[in-house]
Amino acid sequence: MGQRDARTDSLQKSKGSKGKARMAIQELIERLENIIAQGSRLPLVGKVVVSMDEVLAVLDELRLAVPEEVREARRIVKERDHMLSEAQRESARLLADSQEALDSRIRDTEMVKLAEERARGVLKKAQAEAQAILEDAESHIDAAKAGADRYALEVLQKLDVQLASFQNAVRKGIEVLEREKAKIDHGN
Protein backbone atom coordinates (compact mmCIF):
# COMPACT_ATOMS: atom_id res chain seq x y z
CA MET A 1 0.00 0.00 0.00
CA GLY A 2 1.47 3.40 -1.01
CA GLN A 3 1.68 6.59 0.95
CA ARG A 4 -1.30 8.06 -0.81
CA ASP A 5 -3.42 4.98 -0.10
CA ALA A 6 -2.53 5.06 3.61
CA ARG A 7 -3.47 8.74 3.83
CA THR A 8 -6.73 8.17 1.97
CA ASP A 9 -7.48 5.21 4.21
CA SER A 10 -6.73 7.34 7.27
CA LEU A 11 -8.97 10.15 5.98
CA GLN A 12 -11.79 7.72 5.31
CA LYS A 13 -11.43 6.26 8.80
CA SER A 14 -11.56 9.79 10.27
CA LYS A 15 -14.60 10.68 8.17
CA GLY A 16 -16.27 7.43 9.14
CA SER A 17 -15.76 8.17 12.78
CA LYS A 18 -17.37 11.63 12.75
CA GLY A 19 -20.05 10.34 15.04
CA LYS A 20 -17.40 8.99 17.42
CA ALA A 21 -15.33 11.18 19.65
CA ARG A 22 -12.34 12.53 17.73
CA MET A 23 -8.89 12.33 19.08
CA ALA A 24 -7.90 15.62 20.65
CA ILE A 25 -5.14 17.59 18.98
CA GLN A 26 -2.98 17.09 22.04
CA GLU A 27 -3.27 13.31 21.65
CA LEU A 28 -2.33 13.53 17.97
CA ILE A 29 0.72 15.62 18.83
CA GLU A 30 1.68 13.02 21.43
CA ARG A 31 1.34 10.31 18.75
CA LEU A 32 3.69 12.28 16.49
CA GLU A 33 6.16 12.59 19.35
CA ASN A 34 5.95 8.80 19.92
CA ILE A 35 6.51 8.12 16.20
CA ILE A 36 9.61 10.32 16.28
CA ALA A 37 10.80 8.80 19.57
CA GLN A 38 10.40 5.28 18.15
CA GLY A 39 12.12 6.19 14.90
CA SER A 40 15.58 4.93 14.04
CA ARG A 41 18.36 7.35 14.94
CA LEU A 42 21.06 8.10 12.44
CA PRO A 43 24.41 8.22 14.15
CA LEU A 44 26.52 11.38 13.96
CA VAL A 45 23.91 13.54 12.16
CA GLY A 46 21.27 13.81 14.89
CA LYS A 47 18.42 12.79 12.62
CA VAL A 48 15.68 10.22 12.98
CA VAL A 49 14.13 8.01 10.34
CA VAL A 50 10.35 7.62 10.80
CA SER A 51 7.58 5.93 8.87
CA MET A 52 6.28 8.45 6.43
CA ASP A 53 2.90 6.69 6.27
CA GLU A 54 2.46 6.92 10.03
CA VAL A 55 3.46 10.61 10.12
CA LEU A 56 1.19 11.47 7.16
CA ALA A 57 -1.70 9.56 8.73
CA VAL A 58 -1.34 11.52 11.98
CA LEU A 59 -1.01 14.78 10.01
CA ASP A 60 -4.21 13.93 8.11
CA GLU A 61 -5.99 13.34 11.41
CA LEU A 62 -4.58 16.65 12.67
CA ARG A 63 -5.95 18.38 9.58
CA LEU A 64 -9.36 16.93 10.33
CA ALA A 65 -9.11 17.63 14.05
CA VAL A 66 -7.91 21.21 13.67
CA PRO A 67 -10.97 22.39 11.72
CA GLU A 68 -13.18 20.69 14.31
CA GLU A 69 -11.22 22.40 17.08
CA VAL A 70 -11.37 25.68 15.17
CA ARG A 71 -15.14 25.28 14.69
CA GLU A 72 -15.47 24.54 18.41
CA ALA A 73 -13.32 27.55 19.25
CA ARG A 74 -15.37 29.72 16.89
CA ARG A 75 -18.56 28.39 18.45
CA ILE A 76 -17.19 29.18 21.92
CA VAL A 77 -16.09 32.66 20.80
CA LYS A 78 -19.49 33.25 19.18
CA GLU A 79 -21.22 32.02 22.33
CA ARG A 80 -18.96 34.23 24.44
CA ASP A 81 -19.66 37.22 22.16
CA HIS A 82 -23.39 36.50 22.43
CA MET A 83 -23.12 36.27 26.21
CA LEU A 84 -21.11 39.52 26.30
CA SER A 85 -23.67 41.19 24.07
CA GLU A 86 -26.49 39.95 26.30
CA ALA A 87 -24.57 41.12 29.39
CA GLN A 88 -24.01 44.53 27.80
CA ARG A 89 -27.70 44.83 26.89
CA GLU A 90 -28.68 43.76 30.40
CA SER A 91 -26.13 46.16 31.86
CA ALA A 92 -27.47 49.00 29.69
CA ARG A 93 -31.05 48.11 30.69
CA LEU A 94 -30.11 47.99 34.37
CA LEU A 95 -28.26 51.27 34.04
CA ALA A 96 -31.26 52.86 32.31
CA ASP A 97 -33.60 51.46 34.98
CA SER A 98 -31.29 52.74 37.72
CA GLN A 99 -31.09 56.16 36.08
CA GLU A 100 -34.87 56.26 35.74
CA ALA A 101 -35.29 55.25 39.39
CA LEU A 102 -32.75 57.87 40.43
CA ASP A 103 -34.50 60.53 38.32
CA SER A 104 -37.82 59.51 39.86
CA ARG A 105 -36.39 59.74 43.36
CA ILE A 106 -34.88 63.13 42.56
CA ARG A 107 -38.25 64.31 41.23
CA ASP A 108 -39.96 62.88 44.32
CA THR A 109 -37.38 64.56 46.53
CA GLU A 110 -37.88 67.85 44.72
CA MET A 111 -41.65 67.48 45.05
CA VAL A 112 -41.26 66.68 48.75
CA LYS A 113 -39.04 69.75 49.20
CA LEU A 114 -41.57 71.89 47.33
CA ALA A 115 -44.41 70.46 49.43
CA GLU A 116 -42.40 71.07 52.60
CA GLU A 117 -41.72 74.67 51.52
CA ARG A 118 -45.42 75.17 50.80
CA ALA A 119 -46.33 73.58 54.13
CA ARG A 120 -43.88 75.86 55.94
CA GLY A 121 -45.39 78.86 54.12
CA VAL A 122 -48.93 77.78 54.99
CA LEU A 123 -47.90 77.12 58.61
CA LYS A 124 -46.16 80.51 58.87
CA LYS A 125 -49.23 82.24 57.40
CA ALA A 126 -51.56 80.31 59.74
CA GLN A 127 -49.38 81.21 62.74
CA ALA A 128 -49.37 84.89 61.70
CA GLU A 129 -53.17 84.84 61.27
CA ALA A 130 -53.61 83.07 64.61
CA GLN A 131 -51.36 85.64 66.29
CA ALA A 132 -53.35 88.49 64.70
CA ILE A 133 -56.65 86.90 65.83
CA LEU A 134 -55.24 86.42 69.34
CA GLU A 135 -54.04 90.01 69.51
CA ASP A 136 -57.41 91.23 68.18
CA ALA A 137 -59.25 89.10 70.74
CA GLU A 138 -57.02 90.38 73.55
CA SER A 139 -57.66 93.94 72.35
CA HIS A 140 -61.43 93.26 72.35
CA ILE A 141 -61.18 91.65 75.78
CA ASP A 142 -59.21 94.61 77.12
CA ALA A 143 -61.73 97.03 75.58
CA ALA A 144 -64.67 95.03 76.95
CA LYS A 145 -63.02 94.80 80.36
CA ALA A 146 -62.35 98.55 80.37
CA GLY A 147 -65.96 99.18 79.29
CA ALA A 148 -67.24 96.83 82.01
CA ASP A 149 -65.03 98.52 84.60
CA ARG A 150 -66.34 101.97 83.53
CA TYR A 151 -69.95 100.76 83.68
CA ALA A 152 -69.40 99.15 87.09
CA LEU A 153 -67.78 102.37 88.38
CA GLU A 154 -70.70 104.45 87.08
CA VAL A 155 -73.22 102.06 88.65
CA LEU A 156 -71.35 102.07 91.97
CA GLN A 157 -71.06 105.85 91.91
CA LYS A 158 -74.83 106.16 91.28
CA LEU A 159 -75.50 103.67 94.08
CA ASP A 160 -73.19 105.67 96.34
CA VAL A 161 -75.15 108.84 95.55
CA GLN A 162 -78.46 107.02 96.06
CA LEU A 163 -77.20 105.43 99.29
CA ALA A 164 -76.05 108.81 100.53
CA SER A 165 -79.49 110.18 99.68
CA PHE A 166 -81.19 107.23 101.44
CA GLN A 167 -78.89 107.69 104.40
CA ASN A 168 -79.82 111.37 104.61
CA ALA A 169 -83.48 110.45 104.34
CA VAL A 170 -83.06 107.80 107.05
CA ARG A 171 -81.26 110.30 109.32
CA LYS A 172 -83.92 112.90 108.77
CA GLY A 173 -86.55 110.25 109.49
CA ILE A 174 -84.71 109.29 112.68
CA GLU A 175 -84.36 112.92 113.68
CA VAL A 176 -88.06 113.54 113.06
CA LEU A 177 -88.98 110.47 115.08
CA GLU A 178 -86.60 111.41 117.90
CA ARG A 179 -88.09 114.91 118.05
CA GLU A 180 -91.54 113.52 118.11
CA LYS A 181 -90.55 111.13 120.85
CA ALA A 182 -88.86 113.93 122.79
CA LYS A 183 -92.00 116.06 122.52
CA ILE A 184 -94.06 113.20 123.80
CA ASP A 185 -91.62 112.48 126.60
CA HIS A 186 -91.48 116.17 127.65
CA GLY A 187 -95.09 116.86 127.28
CA ASN A 188 -96.23 114.27 129.52
Q: Could you tell me the radius of gyration in angstroms?
A: 64 Å
- β-strand number: 2
Strand order of the largest sheet: 1-2
How large a portion of the residues is in β-strands, by DSSP E?
under 5%
Q: What is the string of SSEs from the N terminus onward? A: HHEEH
Helix coverage percent of residues? over 70%
Structural class: mainly alpha
Your description of this structure?
This protein has 188 residues and is mainly alpha-helical. It has a domain at 3-90. The chain contains three helices and two strands; from the N terminus they run ααββα. It has helices at residues 3-16, 25-38, 52-187; strands spanning 40-42, 47-49. Strands 1-2 form a two-stranded antiparallel sheet. A hairpin with a 4-residue loop joins strand 1 (40-42) and strand 2. Helix 1 (3-16) packs parallel to helix 3 and helix 2 (25-38) packs antiparallel against helix 3. The longest helix is centred in the middle third of the chain and has 136 residues, at 52-187. The model is unreliable at 10-22 (pLDDT under 50).
